[in-house]
Amino acid sequence: MKYEGMIYRPPSEAESLILQVTIGCSHNKCTFCGSFKDKKFRVRSLEEVREDIEEAKVYARYIKKVFIADGDALIIPQKRLIPIVQMIKDAFPKLERIGTYGNTKSILKKSVEELMELKESGVGIIYLGVESGDQVTLDRVCKGTVLDKTAEAAKRVKDAGIVLSVTVLLGLGGVERSSIHAAETGKFLSRIDPDYAGALSVIVVPGTVLAKEVKNGTFIVPDPYMLLEELAIMIKNTHVTHMFFASNHASNYLPVKAWLPEDKEKTLRAIRHVLDQKDPSLLRPEFMRAL
After folding, report:
1. Phi, then psi, of 127 in degrees rounded to 5
2. 93 to each of 16, 65, 99, 100, 188, how far by Cα in Å?
3. Adjacent-strand bridge partners of 201
4. Residue ranges of the domains in the chain?
């Protein structure tokens, strides 16, 4: 298969076939992200995608999950995307689910009916990068969206019956807006009520705008214990129907997995214990953190 550049996928897609239908990210302006800076965004031709699917059928005929990459495959117009999804569905008889990243803009380019058409064709989960519920923080990192639009996008995904998994980023507000970012993110998760939420922690990637801001002192990264305070504040302010919350990504200092609201108080007690102890051995070592 003809992969271009580094491939990124959600942790829950570890056993999926990765099918690159776009190259890069359609937005690609977030100050903290260096994932697709080496790629110019383009949509691969249907023929290119077909060739990869035919090759994958040889060695992954009975794959159960397919993740369509890169950063924002959902931006592909519906009339071009449906044939791709249908080819995937036809190629793998044991297929249970197709997953993809989506951003606010790309989701809102689809109607609920179009999203339902994707679901009927096999798309079972959409991963939405929320990052923060604090609009000031989103503007500073050039996320390129407003919270009302993101909430509307989240609702469309849910109304279409597709599983909604969102990502938020601890430390994104810096020291200056640490507690505000955490509290507002918890409130925003409450507002959109996703099925899954994953919290990662900021890692400064060399060459990004954020790295330059850290170097010149205009952005100060919260220390590990401040990040844990953020995690506690975020969870405390999250009031959802039934959501699986995880901060077990390799970027995090303390792995947490919990069903909310059921495990909320137990989880907060566990985080508070680590904060009270201030024992570095309870945290993931710095050399083991990664994106």
Report:
1. -100, 115
2. 14, 11, 16, 19, 39
3. 170
4. 11-288
Q: What pLDDT does residue 291 have?
A: 79
For residue 90, whether the previous peptide bond is cis, meaning omega lies within 30 degrees of 0, is no
**278-to-173, 202, 223, 225, 274 alpha-carbon distances in Å:** 23, 20, 12, 8, 6
The residue count of the chain comes to: 291
Q: What is the pTM of this model?
A: 0.96
Q: What pLDDT is attached to residue 159? A: 98
pLDDT of residue 46: 95
- Architecture label for domain 11-288: Alpha-Beta Barrel (3.20)
pLDDT at 72: 86
Q: Confidence class of residue 1 from pLDDT cuts 50, 70 and 90?
A: confident
What are residue 207's phi and psi, to 5 degrees?
90, -10
CA atoms of 64 and 70, how far apart (whole Å): 19
Tell me the C-alpha distance between 39 and 25, whole Å.
8
For residue 268, what pLDDT is reported? 98
The pair of three-digit structure tokens given for residue 146, joined into one six-digit string = 């407003």
In whole angstroms, what is the distance from residue 72 CA to residue 70 CA? 6
